[in-house]
Fold each of these.
Amino acid sequence: MVEGLLAPINLIIAALGVGFLLPLIARSSASIARGLFWLTQVFLLLISSVWLLRLIDGAPAVEVITAGIQPPFAINLYFGLFEAFVVSAVNLSAILGSWYLIDYFKSRAASMSVYLILTMGISGMVMTRDLFNLFIFIEITALATYGLLALDKRPASLAAGFKYIIATSLASTFFLLGTMLLYHLTGTLNIDDMLLHMDRITGPVGLAAGVLLLVGVIIELKPYPANGWGLDVYETVPAGVAAMISVGVSAGAFFALYKIVPLLGDFLPVVAAVGGATFLASNFIGLRQRNVRRMLGYSSVAQMGLMTLALAVLYMLGKSEYVTLVIGGLFINHLLAKAGLFWLAGVVDRPRTEAWVGLRHRPILLVILGILLAALAGFPPFPGFWGKWELIMQLSAGELPFWVFVVLLGSLLEAAYLYRWFGFALQDDETRAPAVEPVKLIPVGLFALSLLATGHLVADWLGLEAPRVLVPIYMGIILYALDGMPGRLKALLVLGAFAVYAYPVVMGLEGLHWLFGLILLLGGGVIAFAVLHRSDARRGFYPLLGMLLFSLASLLEASSTLEFFFAWEVLTLSSYLLISMGRGAREHILTFLMFSLGSAFLILAGFGFAYGETGSILLADLSKVEKSATLVFMLLTLGFLVKAGAAGLHVWLPGAYSEAEDDFSALLSAVVGKAAIFGLLLAAMHLAVNGVGAINQVLYVVSWLGLISALVGALMALFQEDVKKLLAYSSMGQVGYIVTAIAVSSQLGWVAAGYLTVNHLLFKGLLFLAVAGLVYQTGTRLMYQMGGLIKNLPMTYISVLIGIIAISGVPPLTGFGGKWLLLNALFDKGWYWQAGLAFFASAVAFLYLFRLIHTVFLGQRKQAHKDLREASWLLLFPQILLIVAIMAFSIWPKLLIDPIASSFAGIFPEALIWDGTMLKTRLGYWDGFMVINIVAGVFLVPLLILLFLSRFMQIQKVKQFNIVFAAERPETPETTHYAYNFFSFYEKALGPLLKPRATAFWDGVSEWSHTIGSTLRVLYTGNGQTYALYVLFYVVMIYIAVGGMG
Amino acid sequence: MEFWAVKIGYFLITLGMVTVYGLLLGAIIARTMARVQGRIGIPYWQPFLDIIKNLGKRTAVSHGVMFYMGPVFRIAGGIGTLAFVPVIYGSEMFSNFHFAGDLLLAMYFIFFGQLGMALGAGESGHPFSAIGVARGLGQMTAFELPFVLAIIAVVIQYDTLSITEIVAAQQGGVSNWTLFTNPLAVAAAMLAFLGMSGYPPFDVFTAPNEIPIGPPTEYHSSFLALMATNRAIFASAKLILFMDLFFGGATGLIEMIIKTWAIYMVAVVVGASFPRFRVDQSIRFFLRVPTLIGIASIAFVQIFLLG
Amino acid sequence: MTTKDQSLGPLANDGLSPEERDLFSDARPVPYQPYPIEVVEKFVNWVRANSLFMLAFGTGCGAVELNPLMTARYDAYRFGFQPRPTPRQASVFMIGGYASVKTLKRIIRSYEQMQGPKFVVALGICPVNGGMYWDSYNTVNQFDLYIPVDLYITGCMPRPEVLLAGVLELKKKIKEGRADGHNRYIENLDWYKANQKRIIKNWDMPDYSW
Amino acid sequence: MSNDPKSIIEELSDHYQISEIKEQKADLLLLKIPKEDAVQFIRELRDGQNYTHLAFMTVIDYIESGIFTLTYMLHNYAAHHNIAVHVDIDREQTEMESIHELWVHAATYQRELREMYGIRFPGSPRLDDDFCLEGWDEIPPMRREFDTVSYSRERFFDREGRITTDPREHMKQIMYPIHTDND
């Protein structure tokens, strides 16, 4: 009895039966009708999920043929694993969706029945194996959708419904025609039987049949440009219904496509093109959208396009075994995320994206939105990430670079508009925080959790050590659960957990990984220690910090490109979210994300092509790449250069570094930025050392790029009034040297790179932390508003002093070693011009460094800063550690150079020779130990002399206002402190050389993208007849395209 | 230990000699300029008297620790630069501590004194100090470019970064001097030298009338004495560096004195004949012709000398 | 060596508003003692006499007569006399003729900012007794009421030759150790300050401009 | 419009009460205008007659008549011609309409006149700031009733032994005896 009830056929029967009964029952008792409605939905979900579990356990698929009559006169269903899965998902979305429609259904009993029938139609589309049945279910679904729209009874809905029904009728007409022709050719309506008689589907008739069938299904998926009819729908109906249309109906239609794709062997390129065009165009148009639901609608269409593309391409390449992962991943991702987003859009109910400000003050809401968006944008660990990864791998392996480009560009665009929306949600405006009933969040929250869970399952299924790879995510979740604790406790927890985790990681690494283990993990730990100086709760900060730190560890542990990319993406996401916590970060986070994603996608493409050649995703196997080594190296280098802030690609950097919270900026610049260096060295180590292909030319270009970054960074830093912006540009410049050193690609060069990296970590961490304390104390970031603070913050002053000496390369501190190694490497390589530029850039750097220390600590102190106190000791403590490290490495450079040299041992011929404390290269020599002793001597002796002479002078300590001021008395400290526009003459001297060209270029790119979006949208007239015409044209075009291929 | 004792002793002798020479050179230059103007000029011992007078001042003010230490940094920069440059080729006594590092060390160590001075001047709180420092540093970045290009040309030419080896390569006759083997590099370097020496037209950072002598405007008494001493040492060190790199170095004291005096005279003669550049003009000047000459010198070395 | 007499306490600086007071130092200057060894003192005095840095501050119309001193005709550099652009580094203050009340204020500031030992030479008749401006509402008549003067060079205007003679006279005085204006000023600071404040109405600077 | 200054004045005489017109030099014309019309008249000269430059403004103290005569010297660049506009104001009620809106730099002259003569120009920027004098607390020093000799004696203390002679007599007797014959 129970078994009978659970038969898959009941999915149809129950829905259909109840659907027709509901209006009748509703007349007598509305509440009974509603009860029945819910009961039915639960029943449907129960059947499908019970079957899903059974099928997962290995039960055989069920084939149902009703009434003992052969199709087409009866219903022919096939209920396999995929079907069960999709149907369950659809039913789940339906039932959760109706959660949001409770009020809506109260007044519309008829809608309830239509809703049920819609669910049934979709289930039917999924399950049937018979073309005619498929037609019927398509019709039922279309009519039900129309019904839902029409019953809404608002003019907009009616108009939308009308357009919808015209287009879908056309589509189903084509489908029916195609079915007829196929029946004519094969004598069967069953897809499986047709597949057996593929050889009969030939000639013009076969072609026509195929085209018509394809078009019938494709139109349902709303391909660009024949989709104008489908988009008003999302905007007009209630969110629950929109979710059902976006997720359920599309799922059904897509599954139908999936079923008929085997029949369309010859048309696959066209199908792929249709999908790709839709994906790209919809995302371009999405950029222009300001209406949340419409934007989500475009995203839905785009996702369908992507899946269509993926499906077609995988079949084309004969890689149908990856369909499960790619399509499954993308599908479940789309289903959960998009349904969730539509519901959320209904819950918050603010049509314009700009209106979503203030969500920041509803943490749960924000987290849910964050998860859904991250999933949709393809961030790990959500299923879409795995799907997209595999898709790119297969596309690259199939040597389809164009499609790789399309997929990545489309994804980037999609992330752009989704995260622009999220940016609004992150805005700080408490008055506009939305009021939401918590109960309404249950289904959305459930979906968000399911996304996490499925992410884990997929990782597990892929055979990755899921707990290890996903550890940053879990850390984030665990810490988020503990977010109610006091701030310092959380900080200690993060740091403790990180220390416990990172220690064995570092110990287990060797070579380059070990070096960067120390840089990223030890350095990260020391600098992250500074977060302790704040005692407030900082909701959300510590979970993300945990995620970030652990992802750094994961990055180092990664043995495969997949793991690497996973960690890289987690790093990107967590830094994005952390930066977004800065007060003024709003304008900059989208740029940061776009460039980070762009970088990630370039890296992904690089890994993809590497996989394409070697068929392996192991990092170590990158060195086996030969044929496409140049391409792979270029892609990886470019990707990492974006993150390293190379000139031209740096526009994200100043904003992000300066607007992040003050203590996090230190981590971001000193540690997170080094991940890119790690990546570059990794890529260079595996690909560049052999010098195959045109890699040497690439390296040459990179060397210039690095130095131009150094110069541009230094020049831009000159003109900043904002102390953190100055440091941000300085980071850009300093990383430029490292990039050049890597490009030198010799032992000297890489040792220089390692040395510079460590040094940059030390001094930039020091400077950013010192500045954090400064900003915290003074409450401003503008340097000209400070001044004379040496007396109030002496320790911070010493930090900055040591920092700038170390940065500027003045002996005897560490900076000189870096410059010496770099210049030796450049001379040795014969890159003389670069050496000249490096010199010049370091001289310019000297200017902004002096300005930093002068305008902040020297000169006149403002009256308001009279009573400022030294920064917190918790903030100073890591600085002291860093100073100790700098001093130690200054006195004994060997301590630093030896480990670095040993981590690159064996790669290049040895060019560095130790002679006692003396370091020798082919050209020069340098004895750091002796230098610091001599300098100490020549410094101390005059100091002692001066101290002696001072005994014979009455030295009066005076104030900063006791100056010779052309015989006048200084007016106010503000007017006496020379600080604003300090290097105005330099601007005057260099003039047009200093125009922000890169910013202008990228602004242009953004502008063009939006223009493309507008241009593509021109086709949408809003007129139903025009849309119908487009559908017809579209059919003709596809026909021509397919015919042309034939 | 004994090695160090000897080295330090030798260095102290060199230092004393260079200080005396530097101060005398200042007086000689001042007298030369006076003769050009039809005057007799200061007595030869005037620079010494000025220093003693400043040391003999009985009162002083200090604006803070950095102000106090600024001149110490400055003179440490000067002495240090001298310490890393061998003064006389082939002489154990006058070779200083050049074995601690090569040309790059000397070049970067030049910044040490500038930085310390800038910090000290900064703490005085005088806006003119800051303006002077900003101008001075800005001009320094500009003349650094042709100077560095010239040095790179020299390094390529002799394929070494060691100053001693560069001098050694120029021995054996006047025709071996960089001046004649690579005139472009010397031209670029000498143009940079004009900026380095702070004579007109590149003296805007000390402009006595506009921003009363710029960075050291608040310095006096012993501080000023230290700075005046450093001026002599530092100028000599730079002259010696130039002599070593471009004019064949020196094998004896007399040769050194003649050569450095001659190099210095270039700046003096130019200084006596030109009015002053604004700082943005001088930056533009250095980034144009001298830089182009510097670039040409590297190209020259690569094409003609290395083939 | 530094014997700081703090018995009189710090200066009041009551010309300044309370907020401004801690922008300036309120320390009271103390006179310096000669070097304990007499030979040293004599030697240093000789050096001081031969290294005279003049503050180049044209306080009055007489400053126009100072410029020729540096030219080829007179060449005061010969005597170790040279201009210096900042009071901090100067040791001789040449009062260039009449001093109006407004200029006097600046003269006081600059004088106090010079480091001791320091010497004042007043040229022209005006600093002596007001000269042709003796009845002006704006010009001081007896300059030494406000600043200790080591040497007067009278004349309206004194020619450069006279100035040169004055410089030589000053050198003699310094060598003999008689040019003690610096200490006189500090020892009688209260008297000088009272005189200064009597005519300078808007005293908006610290009592002693360090 | 005629460029001839006389015809200009004639033309303006229709509207303004111009008196004491005197052609001092070829390029300088003096005239007097009542206080009430003065600013309007100057504006007319500036905007209508191309006297666009205020060369200076000053005042003459006629203590005997109890008036101050303000002088506005206007210059016409095209014609190279000056007009000095005299305005009499009461010495006790020393107040005059400001012209800083016509010429920005007039404010500086007005500050000077305020400080030295105590003439008020309501609305003129920074009128009461110190100009030349610092912390002056007596009657304005350039007013003729101010006794500068006794002020100086009281403040600056004549030095003992000072001899004052009449320069003219002194020169005759001591310095240039020859010239006295020809004088």
Note: Residues 67 and 123 of chain B are 6 Å apart (CA to CA).
Amino acid sequence: MLYQLSVLVLVVPLIGGILAGFLGKTTGKTFTNTVTIFSVLASFLISSYILYTILNQPDLIFNQNIYRWLEIGSYSFNIGLLIDNLTASMMVVVTFISLMVHIYSIGYMHDDPGYHRFFSYISLFTFAMLSLVMANNFLQLFFGWEAVGVMSYLLIGFWFTKESAIKANFKAFIINRVGDMFLLLGIALLFSLSGSLDYSTVFSSGPMINNQLFFITENLSVSALTLACILLFGGAMGKSAQMPLHVWLPDSMEGPTPISALIHAATMVTAGVFMLARMSPLFELSESALSFVLIIGSITAITTGLLGLVQFDIKRVIAYSTLSQLGYMVVAAGVSAYSASLFHLMTHAFFKALLFLAAGSVIVALHHEQDIRNMGGLRKRLPVTYTTSLIGTLALIGFPGFSGFFSKDALIEAVAHSTVYAHEFAYYCVLIGVFVTSLYSFRLLFIVFHGPLSEHNNNVQEPQLSIVLPLILLSIPSVFVAWPTVGPMVFDSFFSNSIVQPTSIELFGYEFTDSLHFLTHALSGPVTYIAISGIGVAYLFYIKQPEIPNKLALTFKPIYKLLREKYYFDYLYENILAKFFSSLGNSLWNLGDIKFIDNYIVNGTARKIESLSNKAQLLQSGYIYHYALMMMLGLSVFLGWVIINKIGMAS
Amino acid sequence: MLTLQSYLTLGAIIFSIGVIGIVINRKNIIIIMMCIELLLIAVNFNFIAFSYFNQDLAGQIFVFFILTVAAAEAAIGLAILVALYRNKKTIDVQELNSLRN
Amino acid sequence: MIKELIFYSFSSVLICSSLAVVLFRNPVYSAVSLILSFITSGFLWLLLEAEFLAIVLILVYVGAVMVLFLFVIMMLNINKETEKSSFNSVAPFAVFIGLIIVAELITIIWINSSQFSTSSTVIQQSSQMGNTLLLGTELFTNYILDFEIAGFILLLAIIVAISLTLRPRKNLKTQVASEQINVDPKKRMKLVDLKETK
Amino acid sequence: MIVDQIIWLPILTALIIVALGEKRSELSYKISLFISILVFGLSVYVLYLFDPTTSGFQFVLKTQWIERFNINYHLGIDGISLPLILLTTFLTPIVIYTAKTTSKNKLHQYLASFLLLEGLMVGVFSAMDAFLFYVFWEAMLIPMFLIIGVWGGKNRIYATVKFFLYTFLGSVFMLIAIIYLYLKSGSYLITDFYYLPLQVNQQIVIFMAFLFAFAVKIPMWPVHTWLPDAHVEAPTGGSVILAAVLLKMGGYGLLRFSLPISPEGSMTLAPLMITLSLIAIIYIGLVAIAQTDMKKLIAYSSISHMGFVTLGCFVFFIEGNALNPATINLAINGAMIQMISHGLISAALFLSIGVMYDRLHTREINDYGGIVTTMPKFATLMVFFALANAALPGTSGFVGELTVILAAFKANGFIASLSALTLIIGAAYTLWMIKRVIFGPVKNEKINQLNDMNKLESISLGLLALSILILGVWPKPLIDLMNESINLLTLFITGT
């Protein structure tokens, strides 16, 4: 029963997407959105039912192969499902956000000529994401991994006539591919060590792998497991946009806003975090890999947050915020607090989707204006959007009581109690990050919704219901979802059948009793106060004395420039690396292929033969007796050879 | 004692004379054709000698055919020669070098 | 003994006349020398009991082929050109190589002589039955197809020789059947619209 | 008998079509389409009759041909050749089907060339006699030579001569090797060669001789430069067959001759072969990025992808101290899948380029842009093929590369890492082309007036897309088909 239902969860969005894609153009918009929304709704309901079933039956792990994909000798590769608490909760999150985005898109994409294409894509994306989440083996993980990448590629380039959009989607795909390559290599390494791609086999042979060495040179070797984990994390760095592979995510904001909410905030980018949690049996065995994860995550958390301070595009600010929050999740995984990481993933999915959709609502209301310098004072014109944005922002900065508070606090608590190498560094990074988060979040909020209302925005109205409704629906979990769930998910054994991690006492140094107690406990830490001070500074900078930021920018010009240029990563990739490789290709082609092989070797041989034959032509006098003489010469030589042979044989 | 070797040697000598004749000649193609006849005679010598000493008639049969073909060859060759002379007004090998280019 | 005597005398004549073929300036002389060498080889072949071939050689070659040669020589009237030096620039080299070839050939013959059968003692079948008869029997039984082909080649040679040398008369009126069949009335007749003339 | 029909039916039809003449080209189009579909049906029937549980040759047909040299007209099919035969007979109807739009002059001869080519290609794949194999191998050059030389582009003569000289020069060495093996074994039967006790030195020489022929066909760096030229000049159908089937003959030759006949020679030269494969994968991939001509780009991408085939054929030799049959199996299966899948994908890409070329008569990437606005259906398929070319999981392109990389990693992590770079490079050149051709604002007025695919084109490309998808989602049946034969090959390689 569970098996059939799980397959149904997977297949229904696929069918919906295919139907919308093939029939949407002819059957019209209503058909398209009905089909896709109902398929995702069905998927959501079934996922919820599965989660419910699993909650009622603790320790139920459901692991079954659907079919055998490939079988070579003793190796077999399967397509299968693994349903446990981790998967089930991810499924619910994914389908819920997807459902919201579907509904939202009815209004947002209403006038777009690519309406059916859009719905088809997001349904297919849902399918891909689900297949990633539900995989019971690395092969399917990789399939989902790449498939979500492709859907993201197509959706970023959804408005394909925009030069910037197709540039962004190309960039996104290539950078993701860099990560995917590492992931594939990690998978290949695990395969070569354990001989299988199934999670269960690989995980059970983890301790055995841990003892093996991978020889880089004759003498230099690393632990094979550490290498595999770092390679796997390389994949996560691409997909979850960690430094230095983060550059594609801000650019991906070229896509429609619902996409930014669904793919580039809530689901796809968290795939890396999900994978880290899924691979926890391996990562737990390698301290060095965890440190690596921790360092990368904390660098990402702090640096990308700073970038959010200087952006003027409403979506880019949120995108950098997403990057920073992803950094937090990775940090949590780095200190082995996978449950906290996943919990933050879940709450973040809700409030970040909310923020994006709210931003989309603003964008729609202002007729596709995205520059925050042209906004201001929209509070009165867009009351629902404002309220929901406020909720999202408060959740994001971890204001006490909101869902983000619980997740972020648990996470920072875990960092504080960690003993992994570089944990102090990570701790300071995340603390500064909290301040930066609230600063840029409220900067955005204040600039967009407060301040004076500009002239041309006077007639702005709240958009239609299908846009507003998801905002309201999403703000509910953004506030409340953590209250009942923080206990079981973070501190209790909810994930114990799918994740290997130390006990909550070891991790957090705190005995959880109930959520209210946790709230009061957290208030004793510095985090909340740092966040509130961030609000204060933002209030000072952007409402009381708006000239301060400009002054600061002038005073610290080099730093400001560094931030505006995004630490020159784009410059490095586009102008140095990409140029280098394309000119390398060009010169290999021109020098290697054309000049050397074709002109020198191939045609050179031909030319040589031609010149030789020109010389040989001099021998060709045209006189018969010259030819006859040559024949004579040949005959005499031949006879001589015969004689020599004869004599040789005789002796 | 007449042995096979003596006949073969004779054939070899005649053959070489024919070959030399083809090459050293600068007068006309007719002489070359005659030299070819000499070559054939030399070859025929060998055939007949082998046929005699091995008591195998096949050699003679072969000579018979060679003679036939040689006659045909001579006829055609001379016909070509006549045609050539008509066109070029010469059969001098020194002047016949249209094989070049 | 008598055989040896005949062999050596005739072969020296043969070699001399062959040399003469090559060396004479006048092609007529060369042709005559060639006739001589044919005749002497005919005699030598008689020594090898190839009577039929010897006679054919003399009859056909001397009687027909060489006469043809002489005909052509005279027809083309080329004995004028005898003033030129009869040897070309590569001649010394060619002679040298030719001598090498002779030497090599003879060496090969003598190296291999141990493999030759020295069977002059073989019972001469042909002396009883006659070489011509034997040859004929063989030719018309086992080699009949080849014989036919040879005849065909001769026929071909005749046709080729004629077609090469035949000069068709100009203005000869002949029928071209294919053109007649392929006549297209449209090409022959042209309908022309003439405008009225006043 | 049925194999015989698959070979000779198209060849005889080709003769009939030529005899029919130019005036009845519509009729000859129908006949050739019918025959090629019939031949595909026959080969599917072969697939149905084929017994995948045995490793040996099936459908064996043996007739004496040249008694003096013990040459036989000896045909047979095993698990390695059957997929390639299916590929051939599947693509020929598609090429013939689309020939109508791509080639208008002397259509009947064009069709006849392809039918002839089909028969000969199947002949190559099913010949069990080395001499017969050689005859088919060389004879195949003739129709291909004609296709490029007669219906090609401006610079076709240069391209054909280059193509012909390269391939011919290579195969001469193969002939020498075959004759040598015949003298050793007294038979031309390929499987007899496997059992010859050869010294390592002899094996190396034989391997090199075969390599010349196969490396040119595959093509491996540095004897690859004929391919881009040939592709650029060839008509669409010619490019399709060239990329899809002709190149596979090199890989097939490696599996049929080089590896089982000279396993130790292969082992000695494996580092060289692996280096060349990696050069093909990386160097040629980078070169592909620099191309401005779509056909050249895809041609270079073909070379790069064929690098995986050669990598799969040799990478297992460097694993540790002893050969591991499991890795061999994995790698060779990967090479085979890569061949089949590349056959389908490159065929699809060349057909797609043909679709565009028929409309705008240019292959320059810069002349395009924004195709998707006027040809949405076509753009969808083209993007799909491009993604398949970039080895997207779920398409057949991924299966081969995955298995080869897995096998390579078992052998050596660094080689695997280098070969995995193709994930980036392949995506870069393919999508870079897609970005400039398919997406973006409409470049010029001509593109604004384009019509989307007609029925003919959509059916052909749709069929290819479907097969690529099916192979990607469920490649197991294909593997099951060749598993036993590859097991046998593994035995020969390990020398047991």
Note: Strands of chain D lie at 58-66, 71-77.
